[in-house]
Specification:
This protein is an all-alpha fold and 213 residues long. The chain is 78% helix and 0% strand. Helix 1 (2-30) runs antiparallel to helix 5 and helix 3 packs antiparallel against helix 4 (75-99).
Length: 213
């Protein structure tokens, strides 16, 4: 019972932190000027096309489910849960390795940047390690984790071709060409698959350790 309570509290904390970060980002975007989109409404709507924002929302949604039922497991939920965690880990790593420092942020924008790219990924990893749920991953779940990132890549490229905006430099087909972007997409998908398979293996180890304990 105490473990379930701790799991619910950690899941709730994660969801709240994400919502605070997204609220900060909406405020920062609403009060900014310039950029690709000229109207405030278009700028705010556009933030929900970023992988970072959608991954944070997926993390918050799956943690909200765990607040209600910390033992929730099904192929779809487990796949979305793991996809949210892995997406946040990729978000944090890619941001700090390749994207940090590209923009000089201040105030609310800087606070949102810290929450969404650093705090959320750390909470995502801690939550998965300590909440799980354990023993919920199998090969089918691993493949389900790819639905979100691959779907996002496809939708982003289609939207980019229509409106001319790409949320991240490595997806900019106008600058790099579709062949280079396709290679980048394959690398991202492969990274997710490797991480998902690694999570499957780690989950089996943690589940065995918990059963022995």
């Amino acid at each position: 019972m105490a473990k379930d309570t701790a799991a619910r509290l950690l899941a709730a904390l994660t969801a709240i932190v994400v919502l605070v970060g997204i609220g900060l980002q909406i405020h920062a975007t609403a009060t900014s000027t310039g950029g690709f989109f000229t109207s405030k409404g278009d700028r705010i709507a556009n933030i929900f096309c970023f992988f970072t924002i959608l991954s944070n929302l997926l993390l918050a949604a799956t943690n909200a489910v765990l607040v209600v039922d910390p033992h929730r497991r099904s192929t779809l939920f487990s796949g979305l849960r793991l996809s949210g965690v892995l997406s946040m880990i990729v978000t944090g790593v890619v941001f700090h390795v390749a994207l940090a420092g590209l923009h000089d942020l201040h105030g609310t924008a800087k606070a949102a940047d810290l929450v969404l790219h650093t705090v959320s990924p750390v909470l995502a990893l801690i939550g998965w390690l300590f909440i799980g749920p354990r023993g919920a991953i199998n090969r089918t779940v691993v493949w389900v984790t790819l639905i979100y990132p691959v779907g996002w890549l496809i939708a982003t490229l289609i939207r980019g071709a229509i409106v001319g905006f790409y949320p991240y430099p490595f997806l900019d087909a106008t600058t790099h060409g579709y062949l280079r972007v396709a290679v980048n997409c394959v690398v991202v998908a492969a990274l997710f698959l490797v991480l998902a398979l690694g999570a499957d293996r780690l989950d089996r180890v943690l589940t065995s350790a918990a059963r022995r304990a």
